[in-house]
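We now fix the convention by which a protein and its fold are recorded. The integers have meaning only within a learned vocabulary of local backbone shapes. The record below shows the convention in full.
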Amino acid sequence: MKMDTQNNNSGHTAVITDAEQWAKVNSCKLATLVGFVFSFSFGLNLIIEAVWGHRVPAKVELEGLDIPEMGALGYPEFELKPEPVLAQ
């Protein structure tokens, strides 16, 4: 492993190894990447929400998305029946 020595202002000699340099560079790269990806995806999601929205209308959501998205029921063996209203 290569070792470099470096003098700081206090007169002490600091030893920097390749592993330390690698860790510093990679942590800087990771912080930059996380900062960019988070900022970009957050901004993109704000734009999408403002222009199109992330959700379908409430009526379509309550009816189910099988027919609007696929053109068929997802579970055709199920029979959808209204729940009976019990008198109180």
Summary: The mean pLDDT is 80. The longest helix spans residues 18-51. DSSP finds three helices and two strands in the chain. Residues 9 and 15 are 14 Å apart (CA to CA).
